[in-house]
């Protein structure tokens, strides 16, 4: 008999998310039926979008039901199989959620995919070669439409999405500038991730000051901007956008806990003839194969070596998640379960 | 010897534009050189974009030089010609500016075009079958991407752009809803312009109330929105946008005099995966022929009969222009010169 530890959403946050919104539970793993496999999770992915699902209000993702296992991406290995296509020992990626094991009905298309760990570490399939990497690819390629010699900028630059964005943008011969919080992250962005420059937003008291720093780092203006943050950062970027600039809106983490984050000067959308587009990568599955192929190639050739923040043990997931929302992670936030 | 009355930009507004920013002048019409024609203007067009050009700050249009004739669209007739392609009596549209006559060098492509007044009144070439009409066409067709059965909304609904938008949207079998100021304009929008509904924003104290009125008028949500106004109206529209909705940003007249018009909830761009795009129709000349053809067809068949506000005499232009900025016009604002 196998015991499965789980983390459930116990109640919804009223403002900031808190650890006591979650609850730990233990259940027995049920016996498998035909077509099912049992996956033991090695890593659980923590991602900002999960904060939106904790609310009951309109968001882009369906609300996470109360009393159920928190949803989320996982990688692990098959430890028991009643599905002919899967063998014990196969390494797989799926959406197993915040728990140690998951039973997966493999007859549903797309719920589980085998992953090859000869050139790509297993955990990367939750980051650079997973949903965050494809997110960077889609926003850059399909919305920011980079051309060689143009300037591309990303906020939350050292996170899972930002790291992949840098490698993808440099591969297209774009000047690539990051925005991150703190000198360590900024140094890491330029020394390890390939950014041409990185601006520490914490060194700037307001949008005006941050905007001046952006002007120094992007003297020709910004052609494409990938937004993860919103608020002051977006206000600082907007005046620096070049005519016909493109902004991919992937996240606005500064507003996830309910803070008001108005956009100060929407007139600039007209003045600079900008295109601003929000997207969710799960709605663009047709682009995943090309994106994953490019991303795993960049990892294999050493141009994409993203950093990971690893919390240990399932019980550490809530605090690690809250840290992610506050920018305390450094690189892709994972929970290591085994 | 012909005397030409002109209105010059004398000084730049510090906040609201005022009549004393302008100055009346009289000059002699110079003798024509080869290739030139003398056009006597019948109508001068007044358009919101002119307010942006009065400022020296960054705008989408080059600043209007001080001490020079205010730029603007005109229609009139050729009264003297030293260009073989033009005969005295030809009716023409051009950018003659705020003056009674203009000398046009016809060797420059696109500065003057002959217009046919058998089915379309001359003044319409400044509105429905001119720049405002093409503006409506571009924003609707190229950005809002209407499909039959969808819901299209436009602010400043009874203006030159809004009138054309209604006819173009109805021709595409879209539910078409306007936003305008005052019961007379709203009644006119539904009774004469073909709007399915029109909301009087002046009846609503804040964005929340206006948004509730929009929900009642657009129970399925809004697929495409054409923005002329900004501010409270945009805040009211944004929550009503459907997933994957499109917003064409043509103007934000509520901010033209320097008022701060922050966008309250930019998070909705992400939540509803919106595309918001600013544009200036003069940068899309390739679409003008198709747009003008459709617009003149709609006029000829009687489906586009826009209203005009006509001020009399060049000296009335400044006050008529200030009225336009404050929404006191009703339909396309013109100055009749002859």
Q: Main traits of this protein?
A:
homodimer, 338 residues, alpha/beta, Quinone Oxidoreductase, Chain A, domain 1, Rossmann fold, seven-stranded mixed sheet, six-stranded parallel sheet, 15 strands
General description of the model:
2 copies of one chain form a homodimer. Chain A has helices at 49-54, 131-144, 160-171, 183-191, 207-217, 232-237, 267-271, 288-300, 317-325; strands at residues 3-9, 22-28, 36-45, 74-81, 91-94, 101-105, 112-114, 151-155, 175-180, 197-200, 222-227, 241-249, 275-278, 308-312, 332-336. In chain A, strands 3, 4, 5, 6, 7, 14 and 15 form a 7-stranded mixed sheet that branches. In chain A, strands 10-9-8-11-12-13 form a 6-stranded parallel sheet, with helices on both faces. The first copy, chain A, has 2 domains: 3-127 and 306-336, Medium-chain alcohol dehydrogenases, catalytic domain (Quinone Oxidoreductase, Chain A, domain 1, Alpha-Beta Complex); 131-282, 3-Layer(aba) Sandwich (Rossmann fold). With 338 residues, chain A is of the alpha/beta class. In chain A, β9, α4 and β10 form a beta-alpha-beta unit. Chain A is 25% helix and 26% strand. Chain A binds chain B through residues 58-60, 230, 234, 249-252, 255, 260-267, 269-280, 283, and chain B through 52, 58-60, 230, 234, 249-252, 255, 260-267, 269-280, 283. β13 of chain A pairs antiparallel with β13 of chain B, so a sheet runs across the interface.
């Amino acid at each position: 008999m196998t015991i499965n530890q789980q983390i459930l959403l116990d109640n919804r946050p009223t403002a900031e998310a808190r650890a006591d919104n979650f609850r730990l539970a233990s259940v027995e793993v049920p016996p498998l039926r035909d077509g099912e496999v049992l996956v033991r999770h090695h890593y659980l992915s923590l991602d900002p979008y999960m904060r939106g699902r904790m609310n009951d209000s309109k968001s882009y993702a369906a609300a996470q039901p109360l009393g159920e296992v928190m949803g989320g991406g996982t990688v692990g290995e098959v430890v028991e199989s009643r599905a002919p296509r899967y063998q014990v020992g196969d390494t797989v990626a799926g959406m197993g959620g915040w728990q140690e094991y998951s039973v997966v009905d493999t007859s549903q298309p797309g719920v589980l995919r085998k992953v090859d760990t000869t050139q790509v570490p297993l955990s990367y399939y939750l980051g650079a070669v997973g949903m965050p990497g494809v997110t960077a690819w889609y926003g850059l390629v399909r919305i920011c439409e980079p051309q060689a010699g143009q300037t591309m900028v990303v906020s939350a630059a050292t996170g899972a999405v930002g790291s992949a964005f840098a490698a993808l943008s440099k591969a297209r011969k774009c000047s690539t500038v990051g925005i991150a919080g703190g000198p360590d992250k900024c140094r890491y962005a330029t020394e390890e991730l390939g950014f041409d420059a990185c601006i520490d937003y914490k060194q700037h008291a307001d949008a005006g000051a941050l905007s001046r720093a952006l002007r120094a780092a992007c003297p020709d203006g910004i052609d494409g901007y990938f937004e993860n943050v919103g608020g002051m950062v977006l206000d600082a970027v907007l005046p620096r956008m070049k005519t016909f600039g493109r902004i991919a809106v992937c996240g606005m983490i500064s507003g996830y806990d309910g803070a008001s984050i108005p956009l100060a000067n929407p007139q600039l959308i007209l003045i600079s003839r900008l295109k601003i587009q929000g997207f969710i990568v799960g709605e663009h599955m047709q682009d995943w194969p090309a994106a994953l192929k490019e991303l795993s190639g960049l990892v294999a050739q050493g141009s994409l070596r993203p950093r990971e923040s690893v919390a240990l043990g399932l019980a550490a997931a809530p605090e690690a998640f809250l840290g992610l929302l506050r920018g305390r992670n450094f690189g892709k936030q994972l929970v290591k379960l085994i």
